[in-house]
Amino acid sequence: MTSIAGESHIVRASDTINASAQAVFELIADPAIQPRWDGNDNLREAESGQRVRAVGDVFRTTLHSGAVRENHVVEFTEGRAIAWRPAEPGAQPPGHLWRWEVEPLDEDHARVTHTYDWSQLTDPGRLERARDTTSGKLQASIDRLGRLAESD
Question: Which InterPro entries match (predicted)?
Fold first, then answer.
């Protein structure tokens, strides 16, 4: 893997959302809703009916460029945590990971942590885009997610 000394390969953002943990998690676990809160402005659409339920699930998203990604779910705890590794259709994931953790604080508040981990990224062609994924973009996703959850 190519990297620059001192460069962080894991970026993270965390914030409190004024909605129940379950309401927040439902918005994350349903890929059809993901384009509405994507702070990277990368996702164009995802078909409905792909709600994630377990490790091993694969859901498909379409990027604004028209490229399709198969997202391989590698971590899942209902209502609490989900992580996936995107890949081109039929290919092995090149090593980056998107993770969401939702911690209930009380009935109407949840602490949400969004992580992008590209420490195992093996495709040099994806490094520039990985570097452009900042904690600010992750925070934008949390902010958008919060607005959706709080409006329901």
Answer: Polyketide_cyclase/dehydratase, START-like_dom_sf
